[in-house]
Amino acid sequence: MRRRTLSLRAAAAGAVLALGLGLAAPAPTRAAAEEPGADYCNGQCRDILPPGENGNATLADILANRTLGTRPAHTSDQLGPYADLAGGYPQLTDAALGAFYNDASFGVPKDQVASVESPRPDVTITRDKATGVPHVKGTTRAGTEFGAGYAAAQDRLWLMDLFRHVGRGELTSFAGGAAANQGLEQQFWRAAPYTEADLQSQVDRLSAAGARGAQALADAQDYVAGINAYIAKAKPGRYFPGEYDLTGHIDPITNAGTIDRFKPTDLIALASVVGALFGSGGGGEVQNALSLQAAQSEYGVARGTEVWESFRERDDPEAVRTLHDGQSFPYAVRPAEPRGTALPDPGSVTEEPLVYDRTGSAAQGATARRTPVRAPARLKPLQGIYDNGVLPADLLATPRKGMSNALVVSGAHTASGHPVAIFGPQTGYFAPQLLMLEELQGPGISARGAAFAGLSLYVELGRGQDYAWSATSASQDVTDTYAVQLCEPDGSAPAKDSTSYMWHGSCLPMEKLERADSWSPTLADSTAEGSYRMQVYRTKYGPVQYRATVGGKPVAYTTLRSSYRHEADSIIGFQMLNDPGYVHDPASFQSAAQHIDYTFNWFYADDRHTAYYNSGTNPVRADGVDASLPVLAEPAYEWRGFDPDDNTADYTPPAQHPQSVDQDYYVSWNNKQAAGYDSASFGDGSVHRADLLDARVKALVRKGGVTRAALTRAMADAALTDLRGEDVLPDLLAVVRSAPVTDPAAEEAVQKLESWAADGSKRRETTPGSHAYADADAVRIMDAWWPLLVEAEFKPGLGDGLYTALTANLTVDESPSAAHGPTGGHAGSSFQYGWWSYVDKDLRAVLGEPVRGGLGAAYCGGGDLSACRTALLDSLQRAAAEPAGQVYPGDDGCAAGDQWCADSVVQRPLGGVTDDRISWQNRPTYQQVVEFPAHR
Predict the structure, then answer these.
(1) Is the peptide bond before 372 cis (omega within 30 degrees of 0)?
(2) pLDDT at 11 over 60
(3) pTM for the complete prediction?
């Protein structure tokens, strides 16, 4: 299916779905919408989004927070109920859900109205007393969208401003030159460099995308008008976010200065950041090539390839799958005879330079020089609050952000006979949160839920009148790496740094994209004056990321992502999800999800049905192309139908995307979608954090009579469980106990681990608020043992080079306290990326147990049980001897040895107000609990 315009795609979607594999409901028909606000959940829809709805703090509010510890209303009132579930879930009942979740009913009862305002005559914004969530109701569609933009600015203006600058590679110029700010804007702009013309072209394309595209553009313009209306009132009224004062945009004494008005292209810049964080997949082919070559160097080409493939686990038969009824959806499958693969010559890969012309504090080797500005005495407590960055340095550090989970049970297995769902995105923890809650009611719009700040013209995850939907990051492979042959216009021999390349027989100049940034010290960020220029070369195959030689010839490795330059396209799908006249059953829901280009797993529940659909523009690759490795940039190996002028191609039709209706249950925690749907990255094997959900929900379904509380308990129990302890520790103990343990210290450690396993392998406080774990020493031992045992088990057999290369593909550990893991420290999300599957498969092989999709060899002890046991015991003894201060070395907020604090979740400040840390939970940030008892 070739996408030329959004309207063509919309017209074709229903027909293609109807011709599909029979897994979806009949093609959708349009339903008559009820009056805006009709609510069929009857009080059985709930949600939560910590820390709180209010993300706007004036300069006085920020000062009070830093000096007195006070916070503006509704800044953190959802954090307590969210945190309390960790201690309150074991006895949870349906009636008690309100202690941990908000009422997500439409509207606000009269006695719960906190405020009502009309920023213009055709819209009102009502805020409730409990949480301060904006309930926007418009008599016109334009008024509704205007109100949505106005409310977004009220609650998230500073955050929206930050991210529109990140999306343009201008964070340091806007917020200061702290090293973290420099790193963040460099990470993003390297991966997704855009010119203003690129952003505007996405806006222009909407106007040519049929009726829905034109409506989306009108909605966006009204939304932006609402944002700007708030700015126009807040600036002279001096109730704008105080961060503008702190970063030098507005003088805190005279109020001189400006807040730049928003425009539609800002929404595209914002969307590009969200897409990079949560909605992309694939990439990393150069790193894959390096580890493959390390395996071939260690074992020889044939054997090394076999070993590498076993660790790659593209389609592991033991992997937990969201679709478990035997469905198969082949995509990105390893070809039997690969063609066009472009492996680099050994030692030739170099990363493309990004930063040039550094001056001042940006100069290479410059120390972190700070020159604090003079500040009034009353503002001294705020001096330097952004010296370590206004945004977390690791926000975009890895493209593989594993986020979100979903548990959905069919009505055939519930107590009421209606489907039950608990689901939501795991977007990290920030203050204010990246998402915001809202209710939108107006002509053609009826929804409540969460949306990313600055993109909240529609609810992106939430509920409609008689249905709810949510998503998890899918990350299927929609990004490829091309080896572009370099050339010189005059025909001379090219070098690795040449800036022209071959395209269909012609030598073309690369497009040079540049962004100049400069900064001076401010009250908030005292980083000394500095500047630099970022430079990215872009080809028709995407931006250049690396350079190398292939067969002795210089090439540039470029990255081509199907959603690059198409962030705005997904607006159509979100518009449909908010339209009660469009979505009314599984087929119409799946049709809406087909219009979302980001790689997400979408889940749906109404009072009768459940459904699932995997979205994304999956390119149709040329026959023989291996999606996991770099490929030659030649016509024979391009995406089918590739048009570089607008980065479009042929995409797999909806019928070939994983999808289902009314499966007995669905679980997702960023795991494998279905058989044949090859994983884009390493780590989808026999042990995955989704197993924690699958085991619990499967048991509930087998028993029957599932309730909202029971499903919530399953989620919450998994959220406190150490995956290694539940699913890998039994293998480890089986090996260790294969002979008597004679060393007293080792025996004591083993007994502690056995006791912890018997207690459910939890990382849970002894009592809520104790800040001390039950089985604390066993948890410490496991945290210390895991990296040691993995190295002892695999490094001798793999060799130093291959072991190091594979750990670059997949980190060894991602425990809550593993600040070195992909999500960083204090992030909540844990146990997605690690070597748990490798350890599990290898130890079962050593124990003589059956293993499907085993590794290429037995590694622990060379396959000898006794030698393996010795290696594990030796590493266990070393781990048991590690003091807590070494296992948990401490950081800016935690003392060395403080286990609870090392695990704790921090609402990382994106503004001037900070929030309390909470006990670790591994669960969605925004979460819905829904059960619809009725329908239209």
Answers:
(1) no
(2) no
(3) 0.95
